[in-house]
Amino acid sequence: MHTPIQAPVNPPHRLLMGPGPINADPRVTRAMSAALVGQYDPWMTETMNETMALYRDVFQTENEWTFLIDGTSRAGIEAALVSLVEPGEKVLVPVFGRFGLLLKEIGERIGADVVTIETEWGQVFTPEQIEQAIVAERPSVLAVVQGDTSTTMNQPLEDLGEICRRHGVLLYTDVTASVAGNELRTDDWGLDAVTAGLQKCLAGPSGSSPITLSDRAVEKIRTRRHVEAGIADGSTAGPGPVIRSNYFDLAQIMDYWGPQRLNHHTEATSMLYGARECARLLTQEGMDRAVARHALHGHAMASGLAALGLELFGDQEHRMNNVVAVLIPEGINGDAVRASILSDYGIEIGTSFGPLHGRVWRIGTMGYNARRDAVMTTLSVMESVLRAAGVSVVAGAGTATALEHYQDAA
Amino acid sequence: MHTPIQAPVNPPHRLLMGPGPINADPRVTRAMSAALVGQYDPWMTETMNETMALYRDVFQTENEWTFLIDGTSRAGIEAALVSLVEPGEKVLVPVFGRFGLLLKEIGERIGADVVTIETEWGQVFTPEQIEQAIVAERPSVLAVVQGDTSTTMNQPLEDLGEICRRHGVLLYTDVTASVAGNELRTDDWGLDAVTAGLQKCLAGPSGSSPITLSDRAVEKIRTRRHVEAGIADGSTAGPGPVIRSNYFDLAQIMDYWGPQRLNHHTEATSMLYGARECARLLTQEGMDRAVARHALHGHAMASGLAALGLELFGDQEHRMNNVVAVLIPEGINGDAVRASILSDYGIEIGTSFGPLHGRVWRIGTMGYNARRDAVMTTLSVMESVLRAAGVSVVAGAGTATALEHYQDAA
């Protein structure tokens, strides 16, 4: 009924230096083109087990229940919240950017009683502020993002696990923007549920959400276990309320990834291959070295942008290594400059959301693009487009400063 | 902390002749390895628009709202139900296999008042039976699968749209197992919401769920539109109850796919590339020719299996073209035979669920595997393994019968 579209997909060349998604590592997309096998093929279940083991390293955990949710990073968030939080239970969300608001939004939709504390965009919370709110509100779950890309801030988590345990609170965090670019120690920090996505420092495409669950989290979720009628195995249902989603029912998804292999969804095998390769590349590099790489290139980028005369946004002591926001110079149309960078140079940078839309540009150095040539090229182009837009810049200052940073670090 | 896994993924050769997933068309997995671009890159939004147009052809519809849900086929089911059905509204589900039970299960979890009618596995419903139930139950939504792979049955839908309109009922159907292998006419049949998956006759991997919505369905969903706080655009919320999921909120997902391009999830770009290629290949072939291809190879398979002495399961007049179930011969360990087919010949066939587990084998001829060599090889191997298992078979009968079928059809 319509004119058929003749050609296969043929994307233009892009260097994606925004806040994500970024260019996938070619090894990841190559892995995704591998042949499919059946869901219960012994090779497939072994590959699922390998993927679980790899993500234990990524999350720095011994948690048995470390697996993938078949959806984008916000699928992992919703799966964690809808499975962990019973309707009417209280969830405390410290909001320091757009993704804190997203946790609040998802929490409300799944029937939680959500309370928030807020801080200015560009800042993070102290452990004391969060503990005070826990004492005042007595939530069942503390839900907080580690890195909020909307502001580039990285909320310190290392003290929160101990605080949460002392007050009998489960600690959930989303690390989509931060994992592999910044320190994350699930077990050492006492995190009970952690979700991620592939499209930032993991160097893959969006579409799979790794998750890990502590024994405490699993115990709570298991009280809500209800196997669907079509495949009921005769085991008894848990005493807790049925999880209000089938697709995001972590109790059933654990039965699918676990030795029972109870049928649930049909695993998104190509995404699984990609997720496995993301983790394999990182664990071969070593997680600490991957974080150091993001710190090196992220600081080179930030120092270069500052040398071009751009003011860095937010508390730089608590910024993620892998993304920096700069104030758009006065009198400049930020979106027009971004459009020129994209159409004339094939480079993408981002703006932000809400109060920061049109006020900042966000520039990422993530995953496959946490590389010297990507940083240097971007700084060179930023100088060109700023000058063309009428901003006075010191010629060569951005690239020279970044190069110095690399030489000092060598 | 663990031994790193050294090798990239390296799947064994498999010919996937079960009820799905099946081998993806190599053109689809190649398309998925194309480079990523940014979410709001003009090329990306154009590619999303092309994908919408392609799926209008696949679904045989002029529906503007034809797009992808980022998840497996059951993600599409849950998105349709949670967005269409308000908590407490009545949904009628005709159950003729495991996937009818799944619709019931998902409906209950999202707060619907689910009523069912049931028929024996291996049968379908008459339009009169469904209309009687509509008259008796007065549901808001009729939710029915077209093809239920658990039984191989294909529920006729062509009369249901008119019945539903007459009674003021919205008609939702899942066509994951049947689309492109069997006739589907969304507009001509008056279907209001249709969801699918890539892993059967669309010849792709699991992980993306195409969906199409009629104007009636969109109108109802839009009454429940609530834009999330982090990106609120000042538009007013709809009067209907908030959708109990963020990830599956079709009102927000339409705003993301539509000209507003409101940020929601980060599109699973590699899966989008794959989904686009699945639809491109089918629309180039022509949907009617694709259905005829599945009929040709599916009938060759079924007639060959019957010639081997296997009894076909269920109402053959209402079987899907692309999958057939056969009763496992008396005295045979069906799972041991399946294991031998897999390990000795690299071919996968399936068993089924619930009352049919261990009673039938299911053999598919779907998508990329709806091919003469796949059918002939499978029949040859079935003869070998049946004989080895002690079943008396007429030598050469399966392959000879299939070949005759091909010659008659030529």
TrEMBL record, chains A, B:
Say if the entry is tagged with keyword Transferase: yes
Which UniProt key words apply to this protein?
Aminotransferase, Pyridoxal phosphate, Transferase
Checking Pfam families in the record gives: Aminotran_5
Residues in a coiled coil are none
Cofactor(s) needed, names only, are:
pyridoxal 5'-phosphate
Query: Entry's InterPro entries?
Result: Aminotrans_V_dom, PyrdxlP-dep_Trfase, PyrdxlP-dep_Trfase_major, PyrdxlP-dep_Trfase_small, SP_NH2Trfase/AEP_transaminase
Which region is the signal sequence?
A: none
Which residues participate in substrate binding? Answer: 362
Give the molecular function GO annotations.
Answer: alanine-glyoxylate transaminase activity; L-serine-pyruvate transaminase activity
Q: Name one GO biological process term.
A: glycine biosynthetic process, by transamination of glyoxylate
- On this chain, the residues bearing N6-(pyridoxal phosphate)lysine are 200
Q: Which residues form the Aminotransferase class V domain?
A: 44-350
Similarity comment text for this entry = Belongs to the class-V pyridoxal-phosphate-dependent aminotransferase family.
What is the name listed in the Swiss-Prot or TrEMBL entry for this protein? Alanine--glyoxylate aminotransferase family protein
